[in-house]
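Quick one: co-fold with NDP.
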Amino acid sequence: MSDGKRILLTAHPEGMPDETHLRLEPMAIPRPGPGELLLRTVYLSLDPYMRGRMNPAKSYAQPVKLGETMVGGTVCEVIESHLDGFAAGDLVLAAAGWQTHALSDGTGLRKLDPRAAPVTTALGVMGMPGLTAYVGLLDHGRPKPGETVVVSAAAGAVGQIVGQIAKLQGCRVVGVAGAPDKCAYVVEELGFDAAVNYRDVDFAKRLSQACDGGVDVYFENVGGAVFNAVLPLMNDFGRIPVCGRIAHYNNAASDKGAEGGASELVRTMGLVLVRRLTLRGFIVSDHADRLDDFLRDMGEWLRSGQLRYREDLVQGLESAVGAFQGLLEGRNRGKLLVQVGTDPTLQPA
Ligand code: NDP
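Sure, here it is.
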């Protein structure tokens, strides 16, 4: 059989990745051996961390090697099982990457119950981005009722959840996003108190007006100009969970340490000292111990209608590279997913 497809990393991008770095090619569908499963990818999650995996240098995770299939979280259907505990037709959360089919020995798979929640949520609000929002805000941001929380990339996979959890903690929430419709979405549909567009010329002034009592928690997703505008607004003993810096992901490796130069670092550290701030970098994979708490609380918030989410679904593996570029440019509206194959849960019985 050769009617599978995959996307390989064929060159390390400098700047925006495109089809010269990520090549779609046909693939023979592999045959499962004893103790193995054949998986068919239904949904592929596209996430900002993937840009780091395309660089040659090790970050907190190993880079993808040239010639290897790009990594990624997936929802898959078991097509053929030679492994106890799994049967054809099961839907699983997997890490099959940017391809239509994959083999698995069952390691790291989680069975999904489509009656409990749409299976796409396992890659979004009930999955890695949701857990990131949950631990980043609650464990590292430690918000208290009445405090002001600012979140950047506010309309995205992580940001939309951060703001709503902060509202559930009794906080005042200000979102920062890059388009008027994204700002309207977080205020009108998600209940944030205010939102500011960082592309507006008077962004820093508008942000300051929206946070007139200062900022107690800044959930940092982007870095760059947004970080520079929020930092002076931080209140004494403020907390900054450092989740991501997407504004810098396409920078050359040599630029990353020098962003803003030494004077900016001096200014930042000055404010960290005098305001007694806590900046805390965190990586979601260090927080597996919180998964059960997260699934319990998030399941309850979704069932009760206290928390909402938006997904942005593009069709076909061949759309993945363009969609990933869109993620780095702000074209996605909510959690970005690629539908790679037919979703059996949406088929008429
Ligand atoms: P999103 O769904 O939020 O998509 C990315 C968004 O980032 C874009 O839509 C865009 O929104 C915004 N963006 C892109 N470029 C810039 C820029 N130059 N300046 C400001 N905003 C920009 O992605 P996620 O919610 O999945 O990820 C958000 C952040 O969280 C990322 O930095 C990611 O790396 C990080 N993350 C970290 C994890 C961890 O373990 N620490 C785990 C998961 C995610 P806009 O239109 O508003 O510009």
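If it helps, The chain has two domains: 4-124+310-346, 128-288+294-301.
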